[in-house]
Design goal:
The protein has 87 residues and is mostly beta strands. Strands 1, 2, 3, 4, 5 and 6 form a six-stranded antiparallel sheet that branches. It is 0% helix and 44% strand. 16% of the residues are buried. It starts with 9 loop residues before the first strand and ends with a strand. The protein has one domain: Umud Fragment, subunit A. A hairpin with a 5-residue loop joins strand 3 and strand 4. It is built from no helices and six strands.
């Protein structure tokens, strides 16, 4: 999720939050596990994920996933040295 999030950043996630296209979310995508990506909602109701870095690829991006796999929306990122920012 570079440049928005970096390795070792901590995130605060809101569960059961209202979601919108483009939100940064945490999803449990089999067989990979937990991932942090942006949410894409298509006209036909399909849900998929995408990252912020166009030069990086991921096996979880641009493929339909179950809406139930979205665990919540990322609200804050916490970075060392101490820096807090809304996502």
């Amino acid at each position: 999720m570079l440049p928005t999030l970096r390795p070792q950043d901590l995130v605060l996630v809101l569960k059961n939050s209202q979601l919108a296209a483009g939100d940064v979310v945490v999803a449990d995508v089999a067989p990979v596990g937990l991932v942090v990506k942006r949410l894409r909602l298509s006209q036909d109701g399909q849900v998929s994920l995408y990252g912020d870095n166009p030069d990086a690829t991921s096996s979880v991006c641009d493929r339909p996933i179950s809406p139930e796999s979205i665990l919540g929306r990322v609200l804050l990122r916490i970075r060392s040295p101490l820096s807090v920012g809304f996502v």
